[in-house]
Write a structure and sequence with these properties.
Blueprint: H1 7-11, H2 21-33, H3 38-52, H4 57-70
Helix pairs in contact: 3-4
Length: 71
């Protein structure tokens, strides 16, 4: 399970809570199904916040899906 303080949440600027179920499922998919590293996922999260000004698991997921297609 992904717990409070995980680097993916920190990359989104989320420090005061654990992920909700849907967020945990997405992080699990990125790590275990797609096989992305934490560094790559946090880069996508940081780009998301930089681009749209807020955390969005859906937006980051879109970035990661695009990158997955490039592998």
């Amino acid at each position: 399970a992904v717990l409070r303080g995980c680097p993916i949440l920190k990359a989104f600027g989320i420090r005061n809570r654990a992920p909700v179920e849907k967020e945990a499922e997405m992080m699990d998919r990125w790590l275990n199904t797609y096989g992305f590293t934490i560094d790559l996922i946090t880069e996508a999260c940081q780009r998301t916040v930089s681009k749209i000004g807020q955390p969005s698991f859906q937006y980051a997921g879109g970035i990661l899906s695009k990158w997955r297609g490039m592998q």
